[in-house]
Design brief:
Family: Belongs to the KdgT transporter family.
Transmembrane segments: 12-32, 74-93, 99-122, 134-159, 165-184, 196-215, 221-242, 249-269, 281-305
Helix content: over 70%
Number of strands: 0
Shape: globular
Keywords: Cell membrane, Membrane, Sugar transport, Symport, Transmembrane, Transmembrane helix, Transport
Structural class: mainly alpha
Protein name: 2-keto-3-deoxygluconate permease
InterPro entries: 2keto-3dGluconate_permease
């Protein structure tokens, strides 16, 4: 009965545990403070460890036999996301300035559309994609850390790039690529582990989310969430369909926001104090985007796929 329920929810293996984790963290945040073992799974360090394992597993699927097709798909998604972030970020900044519109500052808007939760992408790929889509997550992972946002902000003259962040992201992926290519058995073994990792990853992500953030983000947070998801249809979706020759769900799947996007306003304000006045509200709004996009993007990807199949 539970398995039938899960099948009705898009990317349920990650979304349901994520919501459960967020609910527990919102209502009883100290429930896991029993000791180091129980506390670890609900901590940022525990989440990072699971993300490292996930990235290693994803990297192992990027074998030489799959490299060309996976690299092609991943780069189209990556570059389309980057172009969208630069183009829309520039237009927003020029049209509305730092203050933005609807209470959404330029900082919050750019941070939202230039980030993604690669774990959600992997979860959706597991439901709707093939081995090439899963392997392409090694490329799209670049979008899931603040370095991609910093790069976008840097292009707009707002922030500097930290080279060590690139190395920090690349290490587990490169290790996975190495192990997956020297041992086919290792590649096949890790391919099967991802579906088991997803529920734990979703739960760990959820444990870092407080649902009260939605209230702090206000209406601006909801509007920003819709703008973030809507940005997928500007450049990424057409390119995924016409260049990758794919249905387009993957383009929608990269328009979530990872939990680390919430810290971007503080980091930018530290680099440029002139943004400090926007820091608090931008962080709250990004927190709303993290929650709302994690729920709506899998639904949007599923709905879009049904539309494509109906044609």
């Amino acid at each position: 009965m539970l398995s039938k329920f899960f099948k009705k929810i898009p990317a349920a293996t990650i979304i349901v545990p994520l919501f459960v984790g967020a609910l527990i963290n919102s209502l009883a945040p100290s429930v896991f403070d029993l000791g180091p073992m129980t506390k670890a799974i609900a901590s940022p360090d525990g989440l990072n460890a699971i993300i490292d394992i996930t990235l290693l597993a994803v990297g192992s699927q990027l074998t030489l036999a799959r490299l060309k097709k996976a690299l092609h798909r991943g780069l189209v998604l990556l570059l389309s996301k980057w172009l969208t972030s630069i183009a829309l970020g520039y237009i927003f900044f020029k049209a509305f300035g730092r203050n933005g519109i609807f209470g959404i500052s330029a900082l919050a808007f750019i941070a939202a559309i230039s980030n993604q939760n690669n774990s959600i992408f992997i979860g959706i790929s597991g439901d709707y994609g093939d081995e090439y889509d899963i392997a392409s997550a090694a490329i799209t992972a670049i979008i899931s850390v603040p370095i991609f946002t910093y790069f976008t902000l840097s292009m707009l003259g707002i922030a500097d790039i930290t080279p060590t962040s690139i190395l920090d992201l690349a290490m587990p992926i490169l290790l996975g690529i190495f192990l997956g290519n020297i041992d086919q058995g290792f590649c096949e073994f890790l391919a099967g582990t991802q579906k088991y990792i997803m529920p734990f990853l979703g739960f760990a992500i959820g444990c870092g989310i407080n649902l009260s953030t939605i209230l702090r983000g206000g209406a601006g947070g909801f509007i920003l969430s819709l703008l973030t998801i809507g940005a997928a249809f500007v450049i990424s979706l057409p390119l995924d369909i016409f260049i990758n020759k794919r249905p387009g769900w993957a383009a929608i799947a990269i328009y979530t926001a990872a939990g680390n996007s919430v810290i971007v306003p503080a980091l930018v304000a530290e680099l440029d104090p002139s943004w400090q006045a926007y820091e608090s509200l931008a962080a709250a709004q990004l927190g709303t985007v993290v929650i709302v996009s994690s729920i709506l993007v899998p639904l949007a990807a599923s709905f879009w796929l049904k539309i494509r199949k109906a044609k």
